[in-house]
Design a protein that fits this description.
The chain has 15 helices and 12 strands. The protein is of the alpha+beta class. The chain has 4 domains: 187 residues, Four Helix Bundle (Hemerythrin (Met), subunit A) (Up-down Bundle); 104 residues, Beta-Lactamase (2-Layer Sandwich); 71 residues, Helix Hairpins (Orthogonal Bundle); 154 residues, Histidine kinase-like ATPase, C-terminal domain (Heat Shock Protein 90, 2-Layer Sandwich), CATH 3.30.565.10. Strand 11 and strand 12 form a beta hairpin. It is flat and about 135 Å long.
Length: 613
Amino acid sequence: MKVQAKLFLAMMPTAIVLVFIGFFASSAISQLSLHSQTILKDNFLSVLAVQRMMEASERMDSAALLRLTGKASESVVLIEKFQKIFEVQLRTEENNITEAGELEAAKRLRKTWMQYQENFSFFLTFDADKGLAEYHEKLYPLFLEIKECSEHILNLNQDAMVQKSERVQELGRQMNHFTFAVIIFASGAGIFLSIFLGRQILRPLSVLSQTAQRIATGDLGARAIVLGTDEIAQLSQEFNLMADQLFQLQKSSLGELLLAQQGSQAAIDSLPDPVVILDLEGNPLNINYAAESELKITLKHKDLKKDPSIHPELRNAIERVGKHILGGKGPYFPKNFEEAIQIHTPEGEKFYLPRGNPLKEDNQIIGATIILQEISRLRRFDQLKSDLVSTVSHEFKTPLTSLRMAIHLLLEHSVGDLTGKQEELLYASREDCERLQTLVDDLLDLSKIQEGKIQMVLQPCSAESFIETVIAAQRMVAEENGIELETLMAPEKIQVMADPERIQIVLKNLIANAIRHSPPKSKIQVRLSRHGQKAKIEVSDTGPGISPEYQKKVFEKFFRIPGTPGTGSGLGLFISGEIIEKHGGEIGLESSPGQGSIFWFTVPIADRKNILK
């Protein structure tokens, strides 16, 4: 029998007990409910009918007196109304005879009621003087007799309800005692059977555990003897096979193992870039020659934090990459050269770019390999490229400004009239100049970011204020494109710790992108909300959306989605990401093809101390 079947068998007693208790409890509740319904069905309907008959008879008696006062028309209406009510309720009582003596009382009531109706009709033919004598002589005694019959029927049903209620209470007490006894007995039987079957299942595991403890202490001759064909018996066979292999391995030479270890060490030593291998705790497990000679990393200290010879920035980079990989986030690849670490070496300044991959065994992460790629030459080339871009952008700025001014003066007819074709060409030239000016500004901002020249002046500011400022600046452009700008602010005022000018650049870029890619007669929403200690700003559009394959690339330098209309430089989102990163926030995107896009970023909430300052 398999272990699964045994476990199922061990659980069966408890399951059967639960089902039995549930069935018994359901039966008891049904019995109590049935008795309660019997009370309502048998007696409550009669009690209600009698009470309504008594009320109707009293109303008819009052109507008779009203007639004697001279209000004949009003009394006739009341008499007809309550005669009908009394007759309906009397029939209800006659159809609900449930108690001994109730049938005789109902017949007596019916007979008295017939006499009362007959005398009442005769009473209506008299005037006030004769009617008073008729009322006291015949009508009023019958009225009293009707009340007496009704009260007798009422008492019969009320007494029956009390007796039945007491029987239900007694039955409930008996059910409680019996249910408690059944639960105690069934639970005891279930626990006993579960313990008995559980021991039968766990006994082979105990044998395996004891054998494992003996092998752990060095007794490799110990074996687990477990009879049967289930999974535990198969496990014991595999366990014994492993013990045999360990026993043979203990007798064999360790030379081959040492040779394999030396070969693997020689392989990583042959790599020109420093290599650090981390264990699951993030501590160095092995290093190559380059890491030891160039970066002074050693294995003397098992904890990176306790090794004083490692450069602090290098230690932080290794810990960051190791945390990323060991956290199950996959390989680590640097975003750009700005992540390079500057290290002083005997050969001069060098820059190392960290990257890493997980070490796996049986698809389980057992460590991390971190390669510190030396990129000093590549970084110098990148710096030269950035310097060239910065220089060219600066050189473009002055003549471009003059060109824009000249075109503006021509379009203002400051130097003479223009033909329609000339104006059309100048308008096109002005648009191209504006695009070129935007590109130059983006390149200059990129150059400043890469050189670290952009200084963020963080201060408490109103998130609503800078959102409204940007919306006001972009509203005209949106209206020209037939697009509505809508804002959804948080119910509370939010103060953020940010550089207002830089944050406005980010929001402007996101709104401009949304306008550029949204169809006419659509809506763009700018939403502000609070998430913990950060404020979240979202820009939602109804454009064509972005495919998943491009969503991670839209924040890279100069990236533009293939086939996308427009003349953007591909720098706006990259610059926005750099600004948000320097604010200590995050930027991201949620999109599906054909469903529009939501670009969002977060900035820290200003704490109370900063707001007071």
